[in-house]
Amino acid sequence: MQHTIVMTGASRGIGRVAAGHILRRSPDAHLLVVTRGTSGAQLAAELATGGHAVSHVSADLGSLGSVRAAVTEIRGRLGRGDLPPLRGFVGNAGIQYTNALTEGPDGFESTFTVNVLANHLFVRLLQDHFAAPARIVITASDTHFGDFRHNLGMVPGPSWKSPDVLARAGAFPRPDTAVAGRTAYSTSKLAAIYLVHEYARRLPAGVDAVTYNPGFVPGTGLARHAGPLSRFAMRRILPMVTLTPFATGRNAAGRYLADVVLGTTRAPTGSYVDRNRVDRSSEESYDPRREGELWDAAERLTTA
Q1: How many domains does the chain fold into?
Q2: Which residue segment(s) compose the domain that 98 sits in?
Q3: DSSP H helical ranges for 64-216
Q4: What are phi and psi of 118, to 5 degrees?
Q5: What 3-state DSSP class applies to 92?
Q6: DSSP conformation class of 116
Q7: Strand 277-279 and strand 272-274: pairing?
Q8: 65 contacts: CB under 8 Å, gap ≥ 6
Q9: CA 123/CA 61 separation, integer angstroms
């Protein structure tokens, strides 16, 4: 049966690989890619090679107004029957800055906006349009563990604070440093897990929500805001780590993401999928009080 999957972060890295797998393995899928600027038409054309059904909508995920306009357009297409029934949302886009001071047009810190609030806005505004069985997949990160085993000491662990503090620039010590930017990133990924736990409690039956952890994947665009040395290391040196158990190759990570989206990897709602299997996320990530507090804040901060 024909169905629509909305996906962010499909233009590069593991998302691009996953998009290809989704289209090849699910011929009834219509993939709607959310892209920034004018790149959507070209991406859609490239992905549609071979007769696949692909369309696009433009959105700047760092702007809640832009996200809201994109979702309004998607809802309109679904309502008019221009798109088949909605059965999936993949929040794969993510960002990491070299500081914790970058703000978007809404006045919120940009890491938190892109990695947390934008996904929440997509989920909530599309909630009534999902046709069961449907699946929401949010890409997380094992940086939320905050230990050497999971991130080789490259990213500080999360530093949880009130969501109203996390949503604003300067939430972490020495906010102008790369350490603060990386802390904002790992904290935002912990927040994503908290929200997925709330989605599992609150979304209608038949609409599942899971988080997906690709592991450490060198060579993607995540470090595009880093300094020249870090970008060189990510592109040329760290990819060799994929030959060890400490990292995941881009192709494998993209394939695993497609497995989660398509249900090949079976995962009940609220699950944390570590690459190709359901596992427990960090002990810190199971906290109903924080989860409820974050839900309430996300609802308030994303209200127009």
Answers
A1: 1
A2: 3-301
A3: 64-80, 110-112, 118-126, 148-151, 163-166, 178-202
A4: -60, -45
A5: coil
A6: I
A7: antiparallel
A8: 105, 106, 304
A9: 13
d(CA 165, CA 19): 35
Task: Output the CA angle 7-109-216, nearest 5 degrees.
Answer: 55
- Parallel, antiparallel, or unpaired: how do β-strands 3-8 and 29-35 relate? parallel
Among residues 57, 49, 184, the alpha carbon closest in space to that of 125 is found at: 57
- Say whether pLDDT at 226 is over 60: no
Where does residue 230 fall: left (phi above 0), alpha (psi -120 to 50 degrees), or beta otherwise? alpha
- Does residue 27 have a cis bond before it (omega within 30 degrees)? no
Q: Which of 37-51, 148-162, 209-223 has the lowest mean pLDDT?
A: 209-223
Residue (of 235, 212, 259) closest to 93 by Cα position: 212
**pLDDT tens digits for 229-277?**
454 444 544 454 554 455 689 999 999 999 999 999 999 999 999 999 9
Name, in order, each residue with C-beta under 8 angstroms of 112's C-beta and a sequence gap of 6 or more: 166, 167, 184, 188, 191
Stretch (H or E) spanning 131: strand 130-139
Centre a 10 Å sphere on the Cβ of residue 95 and count the other Cβ atoms it contains. Answer: 23
**Cα–Cα distance between 289 and 95 in angstroms, integer?**
26
CATH number at residue 85: 3.40.50.720
Q: Residue 81 CA to chain centroid, in angstroms?
A: 27
Query: In 3D, which of 142, 247, 255 has the Cα closest to residue 190?
Result: 142
**Whether 93 contacts 75, CB under 8 Å:** no
Q: To which residue do tokens 């609220």 refer?
A: 270
Q: What is the DSSP string of 224-271?
A: TTS-HHHHHIIIIIGGGGGGSTT---HHHHHHHHHHHHHTSS---TT-
- 25 phi/psi in degrees, rounded to 5: -95, -15
